[in-house]
Amino acid sequence: MKSKITLLMIVMFLVGIVAEVNSQEQKDPKKKNKAETTQLADAPADAKIAGATDTTNADGAVSSAAKEGSGDKAKSAEPTKKPELSFTQGLKQKYIEGDVLWMTPVLICLIIGMALSIERVIYLNLSTINTSKFLGDVEKALQNGGVDAAKELCRNTRGPIASIFYQGLDRAGEGLDMVEKSVVAYGGVQMGNMEKGLSWLQLFIALSPMLGFLGTVIGMIQAFDKIVEDGQVSPTTVADGIKVALLTTVFGLIAAIALQIFYNYITSKIDGLVNEMEDASISLIDILLKNKAVK
């Protein structure tokens, strides 16, 4: 239940970030349009004032305009520089250019996959404890307060190792064989808890590039349809379709790469915890035999 609540909170946080970026991006064009409208509203009045003051100098203005005509043509021929976009603005522009219909599924896979990854990373990091210190504390508890004190220590300690120890100590009165069986059985349960959600993460890793390739194929089909309609091959005819094809592929691969990095980290973390669980289980048997806590 706690993991589901954490996952839901992470998804809402990521969706909130995306919505905030979109809202900030939408505010700037509104400000620009408002400024442009005010300039256009003030332009007629300025033109009238300028016309009234320049009527006496009409001949001089015509001659000066004729002299500067060639210079103005040269300036107008120069290409205008595009305004530099920030990272978020450029990313949003590429997202729109790549066709929202095909980019949105890739974004959904990335958001859900990142939420699953972050939730697993938090869970596994909270499950990690100082195993050597915990073994020493369990042994001291057995020596001072017996099995009940050791069980209380395990109950108040987080992580799968403490849970396995609690199950083993709970069966201490039934013999060494029952302790070993309970430790092995509950170890499998804890391993399943650690691997929860990884199958979905694998799905999103495989699905992201596949959706990107699907957008690539659709974009190329659109490009060939335009060629058939125009009856000729030109860069402007196929540019839109090729852009959709390339951008969807890029975004799909980026999503898959990011999720794959998290997946490898999570699996390596699980392997390390499983090794610690196995070593700690052997140490638990030795501690029980050493303190004669089993029959």
Can you describe this structure?
By secondary structure, the chain is mostly helical. It has a domain at 130-195 and 276-290. It has nine helices and no strands. The chain is rod-shaped. The model is unreliable at 28-78 (pLDDT under 50).
User: What portion of residues is helical?
Assistant: over 70%
Report the major sheet: none
Assign an overall shape. rod-shaped
Category by helix and strand content: mainly alpha
Integer average pLDDT: 76
C-alpha-based Rg, rounded: 34 Å
Please provide the ordered H/E string of secondary-structure elements. HHHHHHHHH
The low-confidence runs, each spanning 5 or more residues with pLDDT under 50, are 28-78
Q: What is the number of strand segments? A: 0
Report strand %.
Answer: under 5%
Distance linking N and C termini: 38 Å
- Count of individual helical segments: 9
